[in-house]
Amino acid sequence: MQQSRPRTPRALGASLALLAATVCVLVVVELAVPVVHGSTPLWVVPQLPLAALIFLATGLIAWSRRPSNHTGALMVCGALVLLVTDLGTLEVPWLTSVSVVLGTLMLAVLVHLLLAFPSGRLRTTAARSTVLAVYAVSLVLQVPLYLFDPDASPGGMLAVAQVPAARTAGLWTQRSCGIAVMLVAAAILLDRFRRAHRRERRVIGPLYVYGIAAVLAVPLIPAVIRPVTGMSNELATMLQAAVISLVPIAIGCAMLLGGFARTGEVQELGAWLGADAGRPTLRDALAGTLGDPSLRLAFKTGDRYVDGFGRTVRVPDPGSGRGVVEVTLAQRPVAVIDYDAGLIGSPELVADAGRVVALALDRERLTAELRASQHDLRESRVRIVQAGDRERRRIAQDLHDGLQAELVLLGVQAQSVADIQDATAEVGCAATQLRRRIDQVADELRQLVHTVMPPPLTQGGLVPAVEDLVDRMPLPTGLRATDLGADGGRGLPTEVQSTAYFVVAEGLTNAVKHASASRIDVSMTRSGQRLVVRVADDGVGGAHLGCASGGAGLSGLSDRVQALDGRLTVDSLAGGGTRLVAELPCEW
Q: Is the pLDDT of residue 521 over 90?
């Protein structure tokens, strides 16, 4: 079930509604007055008001969804700036003068908006310096254009003198500096796109590509394109309005694709905490609230950090592009939130979200700590099994290479004594009996070596070793091995191979010694990430773990299977045969 989005706070909702109504009234006025007066061509009148409405609609949606993200507020400011720029159409002197003073401010807002996306904040010194520079170009370098040109404002109310040379110098200075700042902004966007991950490029790539084109085109249209092509001022203004209007549309598309940094919506976490059922996991709730699908949680346990499954994880190093915020509860570290620092610009917002769910994080920390303990216990038990198998191999190797070889040599020597022609009959008979006894002991030793650690298992793998067992059975025995690979199961961990082999050996031994069976079936198959071993016979049944009739080795075998986090079951109804099933986890 998808979590419902909490409502926008009433105070914010009312303020946004009032702001929208005010802007809409201003749009209607700026559309109606020029039409009534007839002083402006009708195709020119709606250009800037429509662009303002686009900025307003996109900005209000963004602002209401994420109040603490400045992107929505910047777009609403862009709508207001566009409407202020269009005040000259009302033919009121002082309003026209305001539009002259702020005539190029929209360029600064455009650059600010693009460089601040998606978090709504300027994250780097280069971005902050560029935005300050573009505001200076738009406001400060605009001054000579109306200060030394009486024709720039109604009745020359803003002019102090008519100095054409100063006005011309100011115009070209503003244009040159504006183009330079726009080039720097384009370079920052290009570098940001180059540094973005592949996932981020798919989301913000179209916006950045269009943003680079827009910040270059807006100042070039009046400075270069209009003089070269000879287009009218009205057409150049319409072209600029069209380029500017597509910026909020591109931002809206990036928002829909998931590139909008969701910063500070603590209410969503509150709704998550209050949900009774069907809510997402804590990590998903934080990732959804903060707008970072790559967000990760690491829980403090001892002197290390673990994930939700209890596995040890490493906290990112500084300079890796990832941000890390520590969450504490009663001055005790509980967890860290690992997030994309390029997507979320303010660590304080992440810290606020962490404080809201600190208790939930502490609860998950306890669960992760328990899982980590279980994981450590499982690993230690596996190491014990591995150590036991290594000792088995060592003992088997020592017996094979040492004692067994010595017995073979003694047998040869005894036979050589028996073959001496000068030896008496009694000596020859005694030597022959000694050789036979030595051969019998050597054969028993070979059986012992095979029981401790069978050579077919260490040399050929699980399937060949089980095939060797089956071939030596005195009863008809079938074997089926499926999905174990072309290498006969050699890709399995050695402790899994040896445990599976001993399960089969114990099942066959019990069937022969205790079950009075006439047939045995063995199967080994892979089921997901588990190896399932079955040994079934048609004997008298009645066996269970730990009972004498079930074989003295079943209890120890069960401990060995459980040490690998597996499960051993015995299904043995009286008169219905016995089925021994072992499930062993394994990595392929």
A: yes
Provide the phi-psi class of 120: left if phi over 0, else alpha when psi is between -120 and 50, else beta: left
Q: What is the pLDDT of residue 549?
A: 42
Output the CA–CA distances (angstroms, integers) from residue 136 to 188, 203, 395, in the order listed: 19, 31, 84
Report for 216-225, 412-421, 438-447: range of highest mean pLDDT: 216-225
Cβ density class 451-488: b for 16+ within 10 Å, e for less: ebbbebbbebbbbbbbbbbbeeeebebebebeebeeeb
Q: Is the pLDDT of residue 366 over 90?
A: no
- Separate counts of helices (H) and strands (E) for the chain: 21, 10
Q: What angle do CA 128, 129, 130 make, to 5 degrees?
A: 90
- % of residues, the chain, pLDDT over 70: 72
For tokens 């600029």, what's the residue?
240
Binned at pLDDT 50, 70 and 90, residue 130 comes out as very high
Read off the DSSP letter of residue 526: E
Note the pTM of the prediction, 2 decimals: 0.48
For the four alpha carbons of 534, 540, 543 and 549, in that order, the dihedral sign comes to: negative
Q: With the CA atoms of 223, 229, 234 and 236 taken in that order, what torsion angle do they form, in degrees rounded to the nearest 10?
A: -50
Please give the Cα distance from 69 to 290 (Å, whole number): 10
Give the span between the Cα atoms of 423 and 419, in whole angstroms: 8
User: Could you tell me which residues are beta bridge partners of residue 69?
Assistant: none
Radius of gyration of the CA atoms of the chain, in A: 41
Residue 534 dihedral angles phi and psi, to the nearest 5°: -125, 135
Distance of CA 405 to the CA centre of its chain: 58
